[in-house]
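Exercise (ungraded).
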Amino acid sequence: MLIDIHTHSISATGKKSIQNLYKDFQSIEIGRFYSIGIHPWYFDEDFESQIENLISYANHVSVLAIGEAGLDKICKTDFELQQIIFSKQIQLANELRKPLIIHCVKAWAEVFSLLEKGKVNVPVIFHGFNKSKSLAHEIVEQGYYLSFGKALKKESIKEVVREIAINRFFLETDDADVKIEEIYKLAANALSIDLNSLSLQIQKNAIDIFGTSFLI
Ligand SMILES: [Zn+2]
């Protein structure tokens, strides 16, 4: 079984996918899995009701994680407001005891500091990791997880995967036009292990953060 921890497409059969939604939470179905959150690119003008709406769906049994949530210094959204809304989502994840999936662009120090201030007590996954070895180490040393997607095509990211402990990462397709099988092959190749051992390891990692019910 190949787990796709973060995708924007509807899950295909035979895979365990966590579909990400930043709106249309009413479309959540039993029997599928989701992460839901307010993405810094997509704040409504009336963000207060957007948060209320998120809160009202977040405890749904099909929602496994909160996010993607975080900070993005490239987008035009007011940075103050991004920090307020991110903090509220850290709090929500803590209250519901659901892992938090992070979107971070050029705001690493601020994300780390808000996670610390918010006393995050759930697993934290930095998705779509595409940065340096040293940053990867910094994330893992703080007890957080990484998730890799199409960036695994790059030699530098293959090196990052080799560097970090195998129990600290996940794989994902995100919004890329790529199959999860391909991402697993890239990672297995980078690690020089067979596909089966890799998929078993990722299943273990998923049990660590979501519990066993996710895999049943
Ligand atoms: Zn995404």
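Further reading is listed at the end of the chapter. For now, observe: The chain has one domain: 2-215. The pocket of zinc ion is lined by residues 6, 8, 20, 68, 174-175 (CB under 6 Å).
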